Protein backbone atom coordinates (compact mmCIF):
# COMPACT_ATOMS: atom_id res chain seq x y z
CA UNK A 1 0.00 0.00 0.00
CA UNK A 2 1.22 3.47 -0.90
CA UNK A 3 2.85 5.33 1.98
CA UNK A 4 3.22 8.73 0.38
CA UNK A 5 1.06 10.14 3.14
CA UNK A 6 -0.47 13.62 3.19
CA UNK A 7 -1.35 15.93 6.09
CA UNK A 8 -4.74 17.25 4.97
CA UNK A 9 -8.10 16.02 6.28
CA UNK A 10 -9.35 14.80 2.89
CA UNK A 11 -6.52 12.28 2.61
CA UNK A 12 -7.71 9.92 5.42
CA UNK A 13 -11.21 10.05 3.97
CA UNK A 14 -9.80 8.77 0.69
CA UNK A 15 -7.92 6.01 2.49
CA UNK A 16 -11.13 4.94 4.23
CA UNK A 17 -12.99 4.75 0.91
CA UNK A 18 -10.23 2.54 -0.52
CA UNK A 19 -9.83 0.39 2.58
CA UNK A 20 -10.51 -3.29 1.66
CA UNK A 21 -11.51 -3.99 5.28
CA UNK A 22 -13.90 -1.05 5.60
CA UNK A 23 -17.00 -3.27 5.73
CA UNK A 24 -15.89 -4.76 9.06
CA UNK A 25 -15.96 -1.38 10.84
CA UNK A 26 -19.77 -1.56 10.99
CA UNK A 27 -19.69 -5.00 12.63
CA UNK A 28 -18.24 -3.54 15.86
CA UNK A 29 -19.94 -1.48 18.55
CA UNK A 30 -18.40 1.97 18.90
CA UNK A 31 -19.65 4.75 21.14
CA UNK A 32 -20.72 7.80 19.19
CA UNK A 33 -18.28 10.66 19.65
CA UNK A 34 -15.55 8.39 21.01
CA UNK A 35 -12.29 7.36 19.37
CA UNK A 36 -11.31 3.95 20.71
CA UNK A 37 -7.57 3.27 20.39
CA UNK A 38 -7.10 0.70 23.15
CA UNK A 39 -7.70 -2.60 21.35
CA UNK A 40 -4.26 -3.79 22.45
CA UNK A 41 -5.76 -4.01 25.96
CA UNK A 42 -9.43 -4.92 25.44
CA UNK A 43 -10.89 -5.24 21.96
CA UNK A 44 -14.34 -3.92 21.14
CA UNK A 45 -17.49 -6.02 21.06
CA UNK A 46 -18.77 -7.09 17.66
CA UNK A 47 -22.23 -7.96 16.39
CA UNK A 48 -20.84 -11.41 15.61
CA UNK A 49 -19.53 -11.96 19.15
CA UNK A 50 -22.84 -10.78 20.59
CA UNK A 51 -24.72 -13.25 18.39
CA UNK A 52 -22.61 -16.24 19.35
CA UNK A 53 -23.01 -15.35 23.04
CA UNK A 54 -26.77 -14.90 22.68
CA UNK A 55 -27.05 -18.17 20.76
CA UNK A 56 -25.47 -19.96 23.70
CA UNK A 57 -27.76 -18.20 26.15
CA UNK A 58 -30.85 -19.23 24.18
CA UNK A 59 -29.76 -22.86 24.10
CA UNK A 60 -29.19 -22.84 27.86
CA UNK A 61 -32.60 -21.24 28.45
CA UNK A 62 -34.36 -23.93 26.44
CA UNK A 63 -32.24 -26.98 27.12
CA UNK A 64 -30.84 -26.71 30.64
CA UNK A 65 -28.60 -29.73 31.26
CA UNK A 66 -29.37 -30.95 27.75
CA UNK A 67 -27.11 -28.17 26.47
CA UNK A 68 -24.25 -30.69 26.61
CA UNK A 69 -26.02 -32.95 24.10
CA UNK A 70 -27.21 -30.09 21.88
CA UNK A 71 -26.25 -30.13 18.19
CA UNK A 72 -24.11 -33.26 18.34
CA UNK A 73 -22.38 -32.28 21.60
CA UNK A 74 -21.25 -28.92 20.20
CA UNK A 75 -20.60 -27.37 23.60
CA UNK A 76 -18.83 -30.43 25.00
CA UNK A 77 -16.37 -30.02 22.12
CA UNK A 78 -16.40 -26.22 22.19
CA UNK A 79 -12.66 -25.84 22.62
CA UNK A 80 -12.06 -27.94 19.52
CA UNK A 81 -14.55 -25.86 17.54
CA UNK A 82 -12.75 -22.66 18.52
CA UNK A 83 -9.38 -24.25 17.83
CA UNK A 84 -10.46 -24.87 14.22
CA UNK A 85 -11.10 -21.14 13.87
CA UNK A 86 -7.94 -20.15 15.75
CA UNK A 87 -5.45 -22.41 13.95
CA UNK A 88 -5.11 -20.29 10.77
CA UNK A 89 -3.90 -17.35 12.86
CA UNK A 90 -0.82 -19.21 14.10
CA UNK A 91 -0.37 -21.87 11.38
CA UNK A 92 -0.62 -24.99 13.55
CA UNK A 93 -2.92 -28.01 13.66
CA UNK A 94 -6.24 -27.42 15.46
CA UNK A 95 -5.61 -30.37 17.76
CA UNK A 96 -2.52 -28.55 19.06
CA UNK A 97 -4.69 -25.73 20.49
CA UNK A 98 -6.86 -25.71 23.58
CA UNK A 99 -9.00 -22.74 24.67
CA UNK A 100 -8.97 -22.76 28.44
CA UNK A 101 -8.01 -20.86 31.58
CA UNK A 102 -6.00 -17.64 31.53
CA UNK A 103 -2.70 -16.75 29.95
CA UNK A 104 -0.85 -17.07 33.26
CA UNK A 105 -2.57 -20.29 34.32
CA UNK A 106 -1.65 -21.77 30.95
CA UNK A 107 2.02 -21.02 31.62
CA UNK A 108 1.65 -23.06 34.79
CA UNK A 109 -0.11 -25.84 32.87
CA UNK A 110 2.64 -25.99 30.24
CA UNK A 111 5.60 -25.69 32.62
CA UNK A 112 4.21 -28.35 34.97
CA UNK A 113 4.45 -30.71 32.02
CA UNK A 114 7.58 -29.57 30.20
CA UNK A 115 9.89 -28.08 32.82
CA UNK A 116 11.91 -31.02 34.14
CA UNK A 117 15.03 -29.57 35.76
CA UNK A 118 18.12 -31.69 36.30
CA UNK A 119 21.32 -30.98 38.21
CA UNK A 120 23.06 -29.73 35.08
CA UNK A 121 20.13 -28.30 33.11
CA UNK A 122 17.66 -26.47 35.33
CA UNK A 123 17.56 -22.76 34.53
CA UNK A 124 14.66 -20.83 32.99
CA UNK A 125 15.64 -17.99 30.67
CA UNK A 126 13.47 -14.86 30.78
CA UNK A 127 13.94 -11.15 30.24
CA UNK A 128 13.32 -8.11 32.42
CA UNK A 129 10.85 -6.21 30.21
CA UNK A 130 8.21 -8.86 29.57
CA UNK A 131 4.78 -8.60 31.17
CA UNK A 132 5.34 -9.22 34.88
CA UNK A 133 2.73 -11.96 35.29
CA UNK A 134 4.79 -14.30 33.11
CA UNK A 135 7.70 -13.89 35.48
CA UNK A 136 5.47 -14.54 38.50
CA UNK A 137 4.48 -17.87 36.98
CA UNK A 138 8.07 -18.80 36.16
CA UNK A 139 9.30 -18.00 39.69
CA UNK A 140 6.42 -19.99 41.13
CA UNK A 141 7.21 -23.04 39.00
CA UNK A 142 10.87 -22.86 39.97
CA UNK A 143 9.94 -22.83 43.67
CA UNK A 144 7.62 -25.80 43.17
CA UNK A 145 10.69 -27.68 41.97
CA UNK A 146 12.51 -26.77 45.20
CA UNK A 147 14.79 -24.32 43.44
CA UNK A 148 15.50 -20.68 44.19
CA UNK A 149 14.53 -18.12 41.53
CA UNK A 150 17.69 -16.17 42.37
CA UNK A 151 19.67 -19.14 41.02
CA UNK A 152 17.36 -20.95 38.61
CA UNK A 153 15.82 -17.97 36.81
CA UNK A 154 18.29 -16.44 34.39
CA UNK A 155 17.31 -12.90 33.42
CA UNK A 156 18.38 -11.20 30.20
CA UNK A 157 18.74 -7.51 31.03
CA UNK A 158 17.54 -5.15 28.33
CA UNK A 159 20.13 -2.55 27.41
CA UNK A 160 18.23 0.53 26.28
CA UNK A 161 14.64 0.64 25.11
CA UNK A 162 14.67 -2.45 22.91
CA UNK A 163 15.76 -6.03 23.47
CA UNK A 164 18.67 -7.21 21.37
CA UNK A 165 18.27 -10.77 20.14
CA UNK A 166 22.01 -11.42 20.55
CA UNK A 167 21.68 -10.85 24.30
CA UNK A 168 19.08 -13.61 24.45
CA UNK A 169 21.03 -15.99 22.24
CA UNK A 170 24.29 -15.42 24.11
CA UNK A 171 22.47 -16.23 27.38
CA UNK A 172 21.53 -19.71 26.14
CA UNK A 173 24.13 -21.60 28.14
CA UNK A 174 24.12 -25.36 28.63
CA UNK A 175 22.35 -25.06 32.00
CA UNK A 176 19.22 -23.48 30.45
CA UNK A 177 16.33 -25.94 30.35
CA UNK A 178 13.49 -23.67 29.22
CA UNK A 179 12.96 -20.17 27.91
CA UNK A 180 9.85 -18.02 28.01
CA UNK A 181 9.72 -14.86 25.89
CA UNK A 182 7.08 -12.56 24.43
CA UNK A 183 6.61 -12.44 20.68
CA UNK A 184 5.80 -8.72 20.96
CA UNK A 185 6.74 -6.51 23.90
CA UNK A 186 3.73 -4.89 25.53
CA UNK A 187 5.32 -1.47 26.07
CA UNK A 188 7.43 -0.84 22.99
CA UNK A 189 5.58 -2.98 20.41
CA UNK A 190 8.92 -4.58 19.50
CA UNK A 191 8.66 -7.84 17.56
CA UNK A 192 11.48 -10.22 18.38
CA UNK A 193 13.40 -11.94 15.61
CA UNK A 194 11.98 -15.27 16.72
CA UNK A 195 13.32 -17.47 13.94
CA UNK A 196 16.94 -16.85 14.92
CA UNK A 197 16.21 -17.22 18.63
CA UNK A 198 14.24 -20.45 18.20
CA UNK A 199 16.81 -22.03 15.87
CA UNK A 200 19.51 -21.57 18.50
CA UNK A 201 17.27 -22.80 21.34
CA UNK A 202 16.31 -25.92 19.37
CA UNK A 203 19.96 -26.57 18.60
CA UNK A 204 20.71 -26.54 22.35
CA UNK A 205 17.73 -28.66 23.35
CA UNK A 206 15.98 -25.85 25.22
CA UNK A 207 12.22 -26.04 25.71
CA UNK A 208 10.73 -22.96 23.97
CA UNK A 209 7.69 -21.11 25.29
CA UNK A 210 6.24 -17.93 23.82
CA UNK A 211 3.67 -15.46 25.10
CA UNK A 212 1.94 -14.28 21.94
CA UNK A 213 -0.74 -12.14 23.61
CA UNK A 214 0.32 -8.96 21.81
CA UNK A 215 0.92 -10.74 18.52
CA UNK A 216 -1.99 -13.06 17.77
CA UNK A 217 -4.68 -11.37 15.72
CA UNK A 218 -2.39 -8.61 14.47
CA UNK A 219 0.74 -10.42 13.22
CA UNK A 220 0.79 -13.32 10.77
CA UNK A 221 2.46 -15.92 12.99
CA UNK A 222 3.77 -19.34 11.99
CA UNK A 223 4.51 -21.33 15.13
CA UNK A 224 5.06 -24.53 13.18
CA UNK A 225 8.07 -23.10 11.34
CA UNK A 226 9.51 -21.83 14.62
CA UNK A 227 9.26 -25.36 16.07
CA UNK A 228 8.47 -24.13 19.58
CA UNK A 229 7.17 -26.35 22.36
CA UNK A 230 4.30 -24.26 23.72
CA UNK A 231 2.68 -20.85 23.45
CA UNK A 232 0.13 -19.00 25.55
CA UNK A 233 -2.09 -16.04 24.77
CA UNK A 234 -5.07 -14.10 26.03
CA UNK A 235 -8.02 -13.61 23.68
CA UNK A 236 -9.45 -10.28 24.81
CA UNK A 237 -6.95 -7.96 23.08
CA UNK A 238 -6.71 -8.10 19.30
CA UNK A 239 -8.95 -11.19 19.17
CA UNK A 240 -11.88 -9.25 20.69
CA UNK A 241 -13.12 -12.18 22.75
CA UNK A 242 -14.41 -9.99 25.58
CA UNK A 243 -12.90 -8.97 28.95
CA UNK A 244 -11.51 -12.03 30.70
CA UNK A 245 -12.34 -14.37 27.83
CA UNK A 246 -10.71 -17.80 27.98
CA UNK A 247 -7.07 -17.91 26.95
CA UNK A 248 -5.28 -20.13 24.46
CA UNK A 249 -2.58 -22.75 24.86
CA UNK A 250 -0.59 -24.27 22.01
CA UNK A 251 1.09 -27.59 22.77
CA UNK A 252 3.34 -29.00 20.07
CA UNK A 253 2.04 -32.41 18.99
CA UNK A 254 5.40 -33.99 19.77
CA UNK A 255 4.42 -33.69 23.44
CA UNK A 256 1.02 -35.37 23.19
CA UNK A 257 2.45 -38.56 24.67
CA UNK A 258 3.34 -36.75 27.89
CA UNK A 259 0.91 -36.84 30.76
CA UNK A 260 -0.21 -33.29 31.64
CA UNK A 261 1.47 -32.04 34.81
CA UNK A 262 -1.83 -30.59 36.02
CA UNK A 263 -4.56 -33.14 35.42
CA UNK A 264 -8.30 -32.59 35.52
CA UNK A 265 -11.39 -34.47 34.45
CA UNK A 266 -11.89 -32.52 31.23
CA UNK A 267 -8.45 -33.51 30.02
CA UNK A 268 -9.53 -37.14 30.17
CA UNK A 269 -10.44 -38.95 26.96
CA UNK A 270 -13.93 -38.13 25.73
CA UNK A 271 -14.96 -41.75 25.38
CA UNK A 272 -14.43 -42.66 29.03
CA UNK A 273 -14.64 -39.33 30.84
CA UNK A 274 -17.97 -40.17 32.42
CA UNK A 275 -16.77 -43.53 33.64
CA UNK A 276 -14.97 -41.57 36.37
CA UNK A 277 -12.10 -43.99 36.62
CA UNK A 278 -9.65 -43.16 39.39
CA UNK A 279 -6.72 -43.18 36.97
CA UNK A 280 -6.31 -40.25 34.58
CA UNK A 281 -6.37 -41.25 30.90
CA UNK A 282 -5.60 -38.04 29.04
CA UNK A 283 -6.60 -37.12 25.53
CA UNK A 284 -3.63 -37.42 23.20
CA UNK A 285 -3.96 -33.88 21.90
CA UNK A 286 -3.98 -30.37 23.33
CA UNK A 287 -7.37 -30.99 24.92
CA UNK A 288 -5.57 -33.27 27.37
CA UNK A 289 -4.33 -30.08 29.02
CA UNK A 290 -7.83 -28.93 29.89
CA UNK A 291 -8.53 -29.16 33.58
CA UNK A 292 -12.11 -28.21 34.46
CA UNK A 293 -15.41 -27.88 32.65
CA UNK A 294 -15.22 -25.29 29.83
CA UNK A 295 -16.30 -21.75 30.75
CA UNK A 296 -18.77 -21.48 27.90
CA UNK A 297 -19.84 -17.89 28.49
CA UNK A 298 -16.18 -16.82 28.46
CA UNK A 299 -15.65 -18.70 25.20
CA UNK A 300 -18.80 -17.99 23.19
CA UNK A 301 -18.03 -14.40 22.06
CA UNK A 302 -14.70 -15.64 20.74
CA UNK A 303 -16.50 -17.83 18.21
CA UNK A 304 -18.13 -14.84 16.53
CA UNK A 305 -14.95 -12.82 16.64
CA UNK A 306 -12.79 -15.57 15.14
CA UNK A 307 -15.27 -15.99 12.31
CA UNK A 308 -14.62 -12.32 11.45
CA UNK A 309 -10.86 -12.98 11.43
CA UNK A 310 -11.27 -15.90 9.06
CA UNK A 311 -13.49 -13.82 6.81
CA UNK A 312 -11.08 -10.88 6.75
CA UNK A 313 -7.84 -12.90 6.57
CA UNK A 314 -4.88 -12.33 8.86
CA UNK A 315 -2.68 -11.25 5.93
CA UNK A 316 -5.08 -8.43 5.09
CA UNK A 317 -5.34 -7.45 8.76
CA UNK A 318 -1.56 -7.25 9.10
CA UNK A 319 -1.25 -5.17 5.92
CA UNK A 320 -3.75 -2.59 7.12
CA UNK A 321 -2.33 -2.57 10.64
CA UNK A 322 1.13 -1.76 9.32
CA UNK A 323 -0.25 0.90 6.99
CA UNK A 324 -2.52 2.68 9.46
CA UNK A 325 0.12 2.68 12.20
CA UNK A 326 2.64 4.05 9.68
CA UNK A 327 0.14 6.82 8.93
CA UNK A 328 -0.15 7.58 12.64
CA UNK A 329 3.63 7.76 12.98
CA UNK A 330 3.76 10.08 9.96
CA UNK A 331 1.28 12.44 11.61
CA UNK A 332 3.25 12.38 14.86
CA UNK A 333 6.42 13.25 12.95
CA UNK A 334 4.83 16.06 10.97
CA UNK A 335 2.42 17.58 13.49
CA UNK A 336 3.46 16.71 17.04
CA UNK A 337 7.26 16.62 17.23
CA UNK A 338 7.37 20.36 17.97
CA UNK A 339 5.29 19.73 21.08
CA UNK A 340 7.70 17.21 22.56
CA UNK A 341 6.17 14.00 21.17
CA UNK A 342 8.20 11.15 19.70
CA UNK A 343 7.62 7.62 18.48
CA UNK A 344 8.86 5.07 21.01
CA UNK A 345 8.68 1.95 18.87
CA UNK A 346 10.87 0.64 16.07
CA UNK A 347 9.95 1.85 12.58
CA UNK A 348 10.66 -1.26 10.48
CA UNK A 349 7.54 -3.26 9.62
CA UNK A 350 9.06 -6.57 10.66
CA UNK A 351 10.10 -5.17 14.04
CA UNK A 352 6.84 -3.66 15.29
CA UNK A 353 3.51 -5.07 16.39
CA UNK A 354 0.07 -3.51 16.27
CA UNK A 355 0.38 -0.55 18.63
CA UNK A 356 2.32 2.70 18.50
CA UNK A 357 4.15 3.86 21.60
CA UNK A 358 3.97 7.64 21.83
CA UNK A 359 6.51 9.22 24.17
CA UNK A 360 6.01 12.49 26.03
CA UNK A 361 7.28 13.71 29.38
CA UNK A 362 3.69 14.59 30.36
CA UNK A 363 2.15 11.42 28.89
CA UNK A 364 0.12 10.60 31.99
CA UNK A 365 -1.56 14.00 32.20
CA UNK A 366 -2.10 14.10 28.45
CA UNK A 367 -3.78 10.66 28.64
CA UNK A 368 -6.23 12.00 31.20
CA UNK A 369 -6.97 14.99 29.00
CA UNK A 370 -7.57 12.67 26.04
CA UNK A 371 -10.00 10.68 28.15
CA UNK A 372 -12.00 13.83 28.89
CA UNK A 373 -12.17 14.44 25.12
CA UNK A 374 -13.54 10.98 24.32
CA UNK A 375 -10.28 9.38 23.21
CA UNK A 376 -9.45 6.00 24.77
CA UNK A 377 -5.75 5.12 24.99
CA UNK A 378 -3.67 3.93 27.93
CA UNK A 379 -0.56 4.99 29.81
CA UNK A 380 2.48 2.99 30.86
CA UNK A 381 5.21 4.21 33.16
CA UNK A 382 7.14 6.37 32.86
CA UNK A 383 6.16 8.32 29.74
CA UNK A 384 4.40 6.04 27.23
CA UNK A 385 0.95 6.34 25.69
CA UNK A 386 0.00 3.14 23.89
CA UNK A 387 -2.19 3.84 20.89
CA UNK A 388 -3.67 1.19 18.60
CA UNK A 389 -5.58 1.76 15.39
CA UNK A 390 -7.25 -1.65 14.98
CA UNK A 391 -7.41 -2.86 11.40
CA UNK A 392 -10.94 -4.22 11.72
CA UNK A 393 -12.67 -1.20 13.21
CA UNK A 394 -10.48 1.95 13.35
CA UNK A 395 -10.73 4.38 10.46
CA UNK A 396 -7.97 6.54 9.06
CA UNK A 397 -10.13 9.57 9.75
CA UNK A 398 -10.25 8.63 13.44
CA UNK A 399 -6.45 8.51 13.48
CA UNK A 400 -6.34 11.98 11.92
CA UNK A 401 -8.89 13.29 14.43
CA UNK A 402 -6.92 11.81 17.32
CA UNK A 403 -3.81 13.72 16.28
CA UNK A 404 -5.82 16.92 15.84
CA UNK A 405 -7.22 16.52 19.36
CA UNK A 406 -3.68 16.03 20.68
CA UNK A 407 -2.63 19.20 18.88
CA UNK A 408 -5.49 21.15 20.43
CA UNK A 409 -4.66 19.82 23.90
CA UNK A 410 -1.07 20.98 23.55
CA UNK A 411 -1.94 24.37 22.08
CA UNK A 412 -4.53 25.08 24.76
CA UNK A 413 -2.39 23.45 27.48
CA UNK A 414 -5.44 21.62 28.84
CA UNK A 415 -3.33 18.79 30.16
Structural commentary:
By secondary structure, the chain is of the alpha/beta class. The protein has 2 domains: 10-30 and 313-412, Aspartate Aminotransferase, domain 1, CATH 3.90.1150; 50-311, Aspartate Aminotransferase, domain 2, CATH 3.40.640.10. Helix content is 38%, strand content 12%. The chain has 14 helices and 13 strands. It has helices at 10-18, 47-63, 70-73, 78-90, 103-114, 132-144, 149-152, 165-170, 194-203, 223-226, 296-312, 314-336, 363-372, 396-412; strands spanning 35-36, 97-99, 123-127, 153-156, 176-182, 207-211, 230-233, 248-251, 342-343, 356-359, 375-376, 378-380, 384-387. It has a 7-stranded mixed sheet, sandwiched between helices. It has a 4-stranded antiparallel sheet with strand order 9-10-13-12, covered by helices on one side. It has a two-stranded parallel ribbon with strand order 1-11. The longest helix is centred in the C-terminal third of the chain and has 23 residues, at 314-336. The mean pLDDT is 97.
